[in-house]
Design goal:
By secondary structure, the chain is of the alpha/beta class. It has nine helices and ten strands. Strands 2-8-1-9-10 form a five-stranded parallel sheet. Strands 5-6-7 form a three-stranded antiparallel sheet. A two-stranded antiparallel ribbon has the order 3-4. It binds 2'-deoxycytidine-5'-monophosphate. 2'-deoxycytidine-5'-monophosphate (DC) binds next to helix 2, helix 4 and helix 8.
Length: 231
């Protein structure tokens, strides 16, 4: 049997991590897990239950209610992708909206939230054969992952990609607002006390500002083949 890997992909928001990770998972027939979707789902739950808004964060209730938040990834054969479910409801579209993006950095700074998400992520990764993307996958969740990649790209190109993605989904949004949201999230992601975004010492850096997905795939599959074949 072929050796199965854990592939950890970390990096800044909107730099193409999920497209890259999904494509690798399809190519290898691995499971793809979007850890950002998990933080977004917790955030949506908190918004709906009045536990977070622009000037409020009800820390105690969030911690108490973590046990009531059930997150699942369910395969949708029509689009050949996994979708995120919160307590049996498909929330895939809603968690990508700007409202959730506005609050998610604060929710993902809560240590109890991070511990719970990490437990779930490690459970899912137990059998290997997984590609997971996020901010702390190679540093904290799977420090022994066989392959770690740290992705980056310019702020302009990232804002443009997020803008196009939301537009394609029919979400009306202002480009400048997206740009500001990305810059603000970079700052919080890099400077938070717990599990800040940083490159693991043994992660390979991929700056895809001027790379197509096909070029990124050629680069990574070459590396993966060597890892699987042990050369
Ligand atoms: O990848 P994304 O933009 O969908 O992630 C949403 C937020 O979740 C982002 O602001 C940082 C946070 N996050 C995190 O703290 N740790 C992860 N492993 C993944 C995401």
């Amino acid at each position: 049997m072929k050796k199965k890997l854990i592939i950890a992909i970390d990096g800044y928001s909107s730099c193409g991590k999920s497209t890259f990770a999904k494509t690798i998972a399809k190519e290898l027939n691995y499971l793809y897990i979007d850890s950002g979707a998990m933080y977004r789902t917790v955030t949506l739950y908190c918004m709906r239950h009045g536990l977070v808004d622009n000037d409020k964060l009800d820390l105690q209730s969030i911690v108490n209610e973590l046990k009531d938040i059930n997150i699942e990834f369910v395969y949708n054969p029509d689009i050949a992708e996994y979708e995120t479910f919160l307590n049996s409801e498909n929330v895939e579209k809603e968690i990508r909206g700007i409202e959730v993006s506005r609050h998610v950095s604060r929710i993902s700074q809560i240590s109890e939230v991070r511990t719970r998400m990490m437990e779930l992520q490690r459970q899912i990764g137990m059998f290997k054969g997984i590609v997971m993307d996020g901010r702390d996958i190679g540093t904290v969740v799977f420090p022994d992952a066989e392959l770690k990649i740290f992705m980056t790209a310019s702020v302009e190109i990232r804002a443009k990609r997020r803008y196009d993605e939301l537009k394609n989904k029919g979400v009306e949004i202002d480009f400048e607002e997206i740009r500001r949201n990305i810059v603000a999230r970079d700052i919080t992601d890099e400077n938070r006390d717990i599990s800040p975004l940083r490159r693991a010492d043994d992660a390979l850096v991929l700056d895809n500002t001027r790379m197509t997905v096909a070029e990124q795939m050629t680069w990574v599959m070459n590396i993966i083949e060597k890892k699987i074949n042990g050369s």
